[in-house]
């Protein structure tokens, strides 16, 4: 997916540059565009053009979710997303860790549901451009990802049958209008599930296979409704995006939107800092997994990241190739051709989007680093990884340059926009 994004944005940049009459002969190659605060070469302009949110292609369709084009599914998913009844204590919803008032995150180092998790909550905007989900990529669709926290003992802490009962009692008509008739659950116990407590698992195993499948189907459809809603969340333009548009169009007013310090930080970001290597494209991420030597919260229990998740996604009953997926076999290429073993994934974690990054400290997969200034210090010092091998190499940046990068990162904050589903 990230390769497609980069190709599309590069093409967009070329088209825009042609309107500036920047040609490819040796003289014109050195031509600069900008004002006294920021002069950019053709090569730099191509990079800047590729980073604009307006260069992001339309959100790809998920073949494994046949209901994502239904407005009614998005409406139902939004209601489930904020409903605290879908938890063991009646006090936790998806919005608890992904608060719409807090950029759909919670500001915590570690997620807090019915207990405390091992990692922090990830951003939700533009999830449809991802191929893998969670910090370790153990899920291969938004709807499969949505189901994980519901059965996790420290997140929602509930079980599959309890959720089916809540759906039948409170959302039956809305559910059946989208997914078809629900089975009669009246004769079944209140709690049962394959991933719950020993008593819940025993109750689950006592239910016949056909009924278990029907309950799991309700559960999967809950995830598909949540996913349909979450795919409506998009990043809006930031001050940085408007600045780049202004430079490309030679708009004097827009070219003043970034301060000299922010422009210098941007220049380092795409240049000597090398930030754009992993944080490129319109979403400022390559959507891949990297080991950058981030220290574990507990040195005695290092997190192995992506390497452990490979088996999990392959064996997930809700993956693209599973019985609850709506995709055909040949539409699951990411999963089918995923490397089954990759030593480079030891201690590797997903690169998150940097959009709105200044609004959501602390940082890294378990909130180990408190400020953006400290994050950059970590990257330039390039410490040895606790597990696996860090890809980072030491880099020399002055304190002024570090401060400038941090200033630039503050310019890429923008609104999160909920866009209605279009059939």
UniProtKB/TrEMBL annotation:
Cell location: Periplasm
Major location (coarse): periplasm
Secretion signal, residue range per the UniProt entry: 1-24
Domain Cytochrome c: 72-234, 260-413
Keyword Repeat: no
Domain of life: Bacteria
Pfam families: CCP_MauG
Name by which UniProt lists this protein: C-type cytochrome
Protein's organism: Candidatus Nitrotoga arctica
């Amino acid at each position: 997916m990230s390769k497609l994004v980069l190709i599309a944005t590069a093409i967009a940049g070329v088209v825009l540059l042609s309107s500036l009459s920047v040609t490819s002969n040796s003289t014109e190659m050195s031509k600069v565009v900008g004002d006294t605060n920021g002069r950019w070469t053709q090569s730099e302009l191509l990079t800047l053009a590729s980073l604009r949110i307006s260069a992001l292609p339309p959100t790809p369709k998920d073949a494994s979710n046949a209901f994502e084009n239904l407005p009614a599914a998005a409406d139902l998913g939004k209601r489930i997303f904020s409903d605290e009844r879908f938890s063991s204590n009646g006090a936790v919803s998806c919005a608890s860790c992904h608060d719409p008032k807090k950029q759909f995150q919670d500001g915590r180092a570690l997620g807090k549901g019915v207990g405390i998790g091992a990692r922090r909550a990830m951003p939700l905007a533009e999830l449809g451009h991802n191929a893998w989900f969670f910090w370790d990529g153990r899920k291969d669709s938004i709807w499969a990802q949505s189901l994980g926290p519901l059965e996790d003992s420290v997140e929602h802490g509930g079980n599959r049958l309890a959720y089916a009962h809540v759906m039948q009692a409170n959302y039956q008509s809305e559910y059946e209008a989208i997914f078809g008739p629900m089975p009669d659950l009246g004769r079944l116990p209140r709690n049962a599930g394959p991933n719950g407590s020993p008593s819940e698992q025993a109750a689950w195993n006592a239910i016949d296979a056909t009924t278990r499948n029907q309950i799991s189907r309700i559960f999967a459809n809950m995830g598909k409704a949540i996913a349909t809603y979450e795919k409506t969340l998009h990043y809006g333009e930031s001050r940085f995006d408007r600045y780049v548009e202004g430079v490309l169009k030679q708009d004097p007013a827009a070219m003043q939107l970034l301060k000299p310090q922010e422009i210098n930080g941007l220049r380092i970001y795409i240049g000597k800092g090398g930030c754009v290597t992993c944080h490129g494209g319109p979403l400022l991420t390559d959507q891949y997994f990297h080991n950058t030597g981030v220290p574990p919260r507990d040195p005695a229990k290092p997190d192995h990241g992506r390497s452990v998740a490979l088996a999990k996604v392959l064996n997930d009953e809700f993956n693209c190739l599973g019985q609850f997926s709506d995709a055909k076999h040949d539409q699951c290429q990411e999963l089918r051709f995923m490397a089954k073993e990759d030593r480079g994934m030891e201690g590797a974690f997903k690169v998150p989007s940097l959009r709105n990054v200044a609004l959501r400290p602390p940082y890294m997969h378990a909130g180990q680093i408190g400020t953006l200034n400290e994050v950059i210090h970590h990257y330039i010092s390039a410490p040895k990884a606790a597990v696996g091998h860090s890809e980072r190499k030491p880099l020399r940046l002055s304190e002024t340059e570090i401060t400038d990068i941090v200033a630039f990162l503050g310019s890429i904050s923008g609104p999160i926009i909920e866009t209605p589903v279009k059939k």
